[in-house]
Automatic annotation (TrEMBL):
GO MF term (any one): DNA-binding transcription factor activity
Pfam families given in the database record: HTH_1 (PF00126), LysR_substrate (PF03466)
Name of the protein this chain belongs to: LysR family transcriptional regulator
Family that this chain belongs to: Belongs to the LysR transcriptional regulatory family.
Claim: Transcription regulation is one of the keywords in the record: yes
Residue intervals of the HTH lysR-type domain: 17-74
Keywords: DNA-binding, Transcription, Transcription regulation
């Protein structure tokens, strides 16, 4: 409870803050977007905006500055944020320890192998320890296959690679610059250029082939593997050129430039089949909080 004093009224009153309103406020601030927050909370954007207004009315203070393009926190909002997080954390700990319902069940989660390998083990491990009554199962596959499984009700939540689009296909988590890599830049003298790629429908394969065709460069697929570990082994063996996210390019490989064409960024998004409530919503919030600022911090 917060003690609120009206300067025009000598009496004071205690206000019971609604946790749903605090959760909406924290989610908007952490995602930097009403749209992303609405997707995570399983609500519409106007509904989330109304929740923030209600919280501001209760506290009689502006919490967000809506004058600019993005979401900016006011001085009052910055002061509330750590307190709101503590209240929500305490609530979630109590429910996790004593509660029933939402913290029991199953979450079927999907992700491409490279993302799952590089960015998710710590997040998923912490989630499993924090919510032992939630059964977590993880499937690694290509984005197209993950989306197909979601459409058939076989997954609840997934991280996917997508073309930069609006909010209609999941919640954008981060933008991913792509680079050409090889063991030795002298391989660029080989014609046709030997490529190390995943089979279709991998999005990085599509990017590589499309860019080379548009640039008029001859190439051949010298090593094709669905395994990220297999592709990395082939790159380290010097068999050819591959495409990796810039943040995942290891130091023992060389990032290549001209005459190879630049590659446009891809995006990583979080998609859900049920709206992001219940156990899937808990995992979605953990994933987004850990990864939304990019895989290096996230």
């Amino acid at each position: 409870m917060f003690l609120i004093t009206d300067a025009n009224d000598v009496t004071s009153r205690l206000v019971n803050l609604e946790l749903d309103l605090l959760r909406a406020f924290v989610t908007v601030v952490e995602t930097g977007s009403f749209t992303r927050a609405a997707a995570l909370l399983g609500r519409t954007q106007p509904a989330v905006s109304l929740q923030i207004r209600r919280l501001e009315d209760q506290l009689r203070s502006p919490l967000l500055d809506r004058a600019g393009k993005g979401v900016a926190v006011t001085t009052e909002g910055a002061g509330l944020l750590p307190q709101a997080r503590r209240l929500l954390r305490l609530n979630d700990e109590i429910v996790s320890t004593l509660g029933e319902g939402d913290l029991e069940g199953e979450v079927r989660f999907g992700a491409p192998e490279d993302i799952a390998t590089m960015h998710l083990p710590g997040i998923l491990g912490a989630f499993a320890r924090s919510h032992p009554r939630i059964k977590l199962s993880v499937k690694c596959d290509y984005t197209a296959n993950l989306l197909d499984q979601m459409s058939r009700g076989q997954l609840d939540l997934a991280l996917i690679k997508r073309e930069p689009v609006g909010p209609e296909l999941g919640v954008r988590v981060w933008s991913e610059p792509l680079v050409w890599v090889a063991l030795d830049p002298s391989i660029l003298e080989t014609s046709p250029l030997p490529l190390i790629v995943a089979p279709a429908p991998d999005i990085y394969r599509k990017r590589a082939l499309g860019a080379l065709e548009a640039a008029g460069l001859a190439f051949r697929a010298c090593f094709t593997s669905p395994s990220f570990a297999g592709q990395m082994a082939a790159l380290r063996a010097g068999l050819g050129v591959g495409v990796l996210p810039a943040a995942m390019a290891p130091r023992d490989l060389t990032v290549l430039g001209d005459p190879l064409p630049p590659l446009s960024d891809s995006e990583i998004a979080l998609v859900s089949t049920r709206g992001m409530g219940g156990p899937a919503g808990l995992l979605a919030q953990e994933v987004l909080r850990a990864l939304e600022r990019g895989p290096s911090s996230s």
